[in-house]
TrEMBL record:
Membrane-spanning intervals of the chain: 20-44
Ionotropic glutamate receptor C-terminal domain residues: 42-79
Alphabetized UniProt keyword annotations: Glycoprotein, Ion channel, Ion transport, Ligand-gated ion channel, Membrane, Receptor, Transmembrane, Transmembrane helix, Transport
UniProt-annotated location(s): Membrane
Main location: membrane
Bilayer topology: Multi-pass membrane protein
Protein name: Glutamate ionotropic receptor kainate type subunit 4
Length: 118
Protein backbone atom coordinates (compact mmCIF):
# COMPACT_ATOMS: atom_id res chain seq x y z
CA UNK A 1 0.00 0.00 0.00
CA UNK A 2 1.34 3.38 -0.99
CA UNK A 3 1.28 6.21 1.51
CA UNK A 4 0.54 9.54 -0.05
CA UNK A 5 2.34 11.76 2.47
CA UNK A 6 5.86 10.39 1.94
CA UNK A 7 8.08 11.19 -1.10
CA UNK A 8 10.41 8.46 -2.33
CA UNK A 9 14.12 9.20 -1.85
CA UNK A 10 16.90 9.03 -4.39
CA UNK A 11 17.98 5.59 -3.24
CA UNK A 12 14.55 4.05 -2.79
CA UNK A 13 15.35 1.60 -5.61
CA UNK A 14 17.61 -0.17 -3.08
CA UNK A 15 14.67 -1.03 -0.82
CA UNK A 16 13.69 -4.35 -2.46
CA UNK A 17 16.99 -5.96 -1.36
CA UNK A 18 18.78 -5.84 1.94
CA UNK A 19 22.17 -4.06 2.23
CA UNK A 20 23.94 -7.44 2.52
CA UNK A 21 22.61 -8.54 -0.87
CA UNK A 22 23.70 -5.25 -2.48
CA UNK A 23 27.16 -5.61 -0.94
CA UNK A 24 27.48 -9.18 -2.22
CA UNK A 25 26.44 -8.08 -5.73
CA UNK A 26 29.02 -5.27 -5.68
CA UNK A 27 31.78 -7.65 -4.55
CA UNK A 28 30.78 -10.22 -7.20
CA UNK A 29 30.86 -7.51 -9.89
CA UNK A 30 34.33 -6.39 -8.81
CA UNK A 31 35.64 -9.97 -8.62
CA UNK A 32 34.36 -10.87 -12.10
CA UNK A 33 35.80 -7.62 -13.52
CA UNK A 34 39.22 -8.31 -12.01
CA UNK A 35 39.26 -11.90 -13.23
CA UNK A 36 38.30 -10.87 -16.77
CA UNK A 37 40.98 -8.18 -16.74
CA UNK A 38 43.67 -10.65 -15.66
CA UNK A 39 42.57 -13.33 -18.14
CA UNK A 40 42.59 -10.79 -20.98
CA UNK A 41 46.12 -9.67 -20.07
CA UNK A 42 47.29 -13.27 -19.88
CA UNK A 43 45.77 -14.12 -23.26
CA UNK A 44 47.25 -11.00 -24.86
CA UNK A 45 50.69 -11.80 -23.44
CA UNK A 46 50.44 -15.39 -24.67
CA UNK A 47 49.54 -14.25 -28.21
CA UNK A 48 52.39 -11.71 -28.31
CA UNK A 49 54.96 -14.23 -27.07
CA UNK A 50 53.86 -16.92 -29.53
CA UNK A 51 53.92 -14.44 -32.43
CA UNK A 52 57.41 -13.34 -31.46
CA UNK A 53 58.60 -16.95 -31.18
CA UNK A 54 57.12 -17.90 -34.56
CA UNK A 55 58.66 -14.88 -36.30
CA UNK A 56 62.03 -15.54 -34.67
CA UNK A 57 61.98 -19.18 -35.75
CA UNK A 58 61.03 -18.23 -39.30
CA UNK A 59 63.75 -15.58 -39.42
CA UNK A 60 66.44 -17.97 -38.17
CA UNK A 61 65.50 -20.87 -40.44
CA UNK A 62 65.02 -19.05 -43.73
CA UNK A 63 68.06 -18.97 -45.96
CA UNK A 64 68.84 -15.78 -47.76
CA UNK A 65 68.65 -16.49 -51.45
CA UNK A 66 71.32 -14.86 -53.52
CA UNK A 67 69.88 -14.00 -56.92
CA UNK A 68 72.84 -14.01 -59.31
CA UNK A 69 70.66 -13.48 -62.38
CA UNK A 70 68.79 -10.21 -62.56
CA UNK A 71 68.59 -9.65 -66.31
CA UNK A 72 68.79 -11.47 -69.62
CA UNK A 73 72.41 -10.32 -69.98
CA UNK A 74 73.30 -11.94 -66.66
CA UNK A 75 71.70 -15.17 -67.86
CA UNK A 76 73.67 -15.10 -71.11
CA UNK A 77 76.98 -14.36 -69.33
CA UNK A 78 76.82 -17.26 -66.88
CA UNK A 79 77.49 -20.98 -67.44
CA UNK A 80 76.22 -22.56 -64.19
CA UNK A 81 72.52 -22.63 -65.11
CA UNK A 82 71.44 -24.23 -68.36
CA UNK A 83 68.54 -22.63 -70.13
CA UNK A 84 66.82 -22.84 -73.47
CA UNK A 85 63.51 -23.17 -75.24
CA UNK A 86 61.10 -25.98 -75.97
CA UNK A 87 61.85 -27.67 -79.28
CA UNK A 88 59.44 -26.40 -81.92
CA UNK A 89 58.00 -23.69 -79.66
CA UNK A 90 57.44 -20.07 -80.56
CA UNK A 91 60.39 -18.97 -78.38
CA UNK A 92 62.71 -21.27 -80.31
CA UNK A 93 61.51 -19.86 -83.61
CA UNK A 94 61.84 -16.30 -82.33
CA UNK A 95 65.47 -16.72 -81.25
CA UNK A 96 66.42 -18.59 -84.43
CA UNK A 97 64.90 -16.02 -86.77
CA UNK A 98 65.49 -12.77 -84.93
CA UNK A 99 68.36 -12.41 -82.43
CA UNK A 100 67.30 -10.23 -79.53
CA UNK A 101 69.33 -7.51 -77.83
CA UNK A 102 72.69 -8.70 -76.55
CA UNK A 103 72.06 -12.40 -77.17
CA UNK A 104 74.97 -14.08 -78.91
CA UNK A 105 74.21 -14.57 -82.57
CA UNK A 106 77.03 -16.57 -84.08
CA UNK A 107 79.42 -19.43 -83.53
CA UNK A 108 79.81 -21.47 -80.38
CA UNK A 109 78.16 -18.86 -78.18
CA UNK A 110 74.87 -19.36 -80.00
CA UNK A 111 75.07 -23.12 -79.47
CA UNK A 112 75.76 -22.58 -75.77
CA UNK A 113 72.77 -20.25 -75.37
CA UNK A 114 70.31 -22.20 -77.48
CA UNK A 115 69.77 -25.43 -75.54
CA UNK A 116 66.63 -27.02 -76.93
CA UNK A 117 64.42 -29.32 -74.89
CA UNK A 118 62.77 -32.18 -76.76
Amino acid sequence: MLTLGRKPGYFSFLDPFSPGVWLFMLLAYLAVSCILFLVARWAFTLIIISSYTANLAAFLTVQRMDVPIESVDDLADQTAIEYGTIHGGSSMTFFQVKPFGSFPTSGSEQNRVMIFVH
